[in-house]
Design a protein that fits this description.
Helices cover 3% and strands 47% of the residues. The longest helix is centred in the first third of the chain and has 11 residues.
Length: 364
């Protein structure tokens, strides 16, 4: 996505994109041939479905898979797969004795990587409903310099995964069954601070790390080097989201802000222009965020017990939903929305309930 000058239009509220497009074609295009950016004054999202058997504790991470199921990880020690039509549990791992803090799903929706509070990392094959690999990252007797993982991210290419640590590092491990958990590389931020979250770029060539002091680091996996550092936030960054083309990175922080970064690289390797937009509106910590498949919208969950949907071009919130507790995780449906829809997402948080949200007046 490239930010360019254009005439900005405030579009009257309509329930469907089809209605908006009709308004645009009928009233705007005949005026003169110039470039326009459509800015939505408001979008409505409805709670289309709730899970039937909530977790017994907070949900700390959720994902919507390519197979249209939802995955949730909870402080009750369980990881569950949910049917997105009925809201019923379709599969679940046996409860772990400590909380599950992080999950990462393969692009094809087959594998779920999960990590527990003390650093037990597991790879769950949804096709066979078996845990095919497990690694105790905290066990220093297995590897020199071993350190417990916190946030984990499965490389989209499938052969490795990343784990953030309490010392400001990203460890790259093998994801292959015969060598699962074998450390292949250590990427250091140079800061001895807790790594709150790490996440691979969609093409699997980069990994981003956010630490407790608010700094964000991007590493190139091919050269195993730190390429970019951002200090856009003054407080802890708890959430990261890449755009699907890998050009944008959205960060959410305890400073109540979301910041959009241009992370494109030039042929010479020079990083993009960095922070390009700030989103204000939450009254407490931003705990989660994600960018829609078409990179037009973002969604965020907060400790202020609200979910907000943001128009990235307009830099403004276009929808706010009140929840009963803190919203620890949100995730867009990975499939592009059908005509007449702006998409759907799933959320999870303090009340242990997985909820599916869709744009009002349309199907998911």
């Amino acid at each position: 996505m490239v930010w360019i000058a254009a005439t900005v239009l405030q579009v009257p509220f309509v329930h469907t994109l089809a209605a908006c497009q009709a308004w645009f074609v009928r009233l705007v295009l005949p005026l003169q041939p110039k470039l326009y950016i459509i800015v939505y004054q408001s979008l409505a999202f409805v709670n289309a479905l709730e899970c039937k058997e909530p977790h017994s504790d907070d949900i700390w991470d959720v994902a919507w898979t390519a197979n249209d199921t939802a995955i949730s990880a909870s402080a009750d020690g369980t990881v569950k797969q949910w049917d997105s039509t009925s809201g019923q549990v379709s599969m679940a791992l046996p409860p772990h004795n400590l909380a599950i803090v992080s999950i990462s799903v393969s692009p094809d929706g087959r594998f779920v990587l999960s990590n527990s509070l003390e650093g037990t990392t597991s790879l769950w094959d949804l096709q066979t409903d078996t845990v095919v690999s497990r690694h105790e990252s905290y066990d220093r007797s297995t590897a020199e310099g071993a350190e417990p993982s916190w946030s984990v991210s499965l490389n989209p290419k499938g052969e490795t995964y990343a784990g953030s640590s309490g010392s400001g590092n990203v460890n790259i491990y093998s994801a292959k069954p015969d060598s699962f958990g074998t450390r292949q590389a250590l990427l250091s931020s140079g800061k001895n601070k807790h790594g709150m979250i790490c996440k691979h770029s969609p093409d699997g060539r980069r990994v981003v790390l956010a630490i407790e002091t608010g700094q964000v680091f991007i590493f190139d996996l091919g050269s195993e080097t730190l390429t970019t550092t951002y200090s856009s936030h003054a407080m802890t960054v708890r959430s990261l989201a890449w755009s699907y083309d890998g050009n944008l990175l959205l960060t959410g922080s305890d400073d109540k802000r979301l910041i959009l970064h241009d992370v494109r690289s030039t042929p010479s390797g020079k990083p993009g222009s960095g922070a390009v937009a700030t989103f204000l509106g939450h009254s407490s910590w931003v705990l989660s965020t994600d960018i829609s498949p078409d990179s037009r919208l973002a969604v965020s969950g907060s400790a202020d017990k609200t979910i907000k949907v943001w128009d990235l071009a307009a830099r403004t919130a276009v929808s706010t939903m009140q929840e009963s507790g803190e919203v620890w995780s949100v995730c867009w449906r990975p499939k592009p929305p059908p005509p007449g829809s702006v998409g759907a997402f799933v959320s999870g948080g303090q009340d242990g309930c997985v909820r599916w949200w869709r744009s009002a007046g349309t199907g998911a």
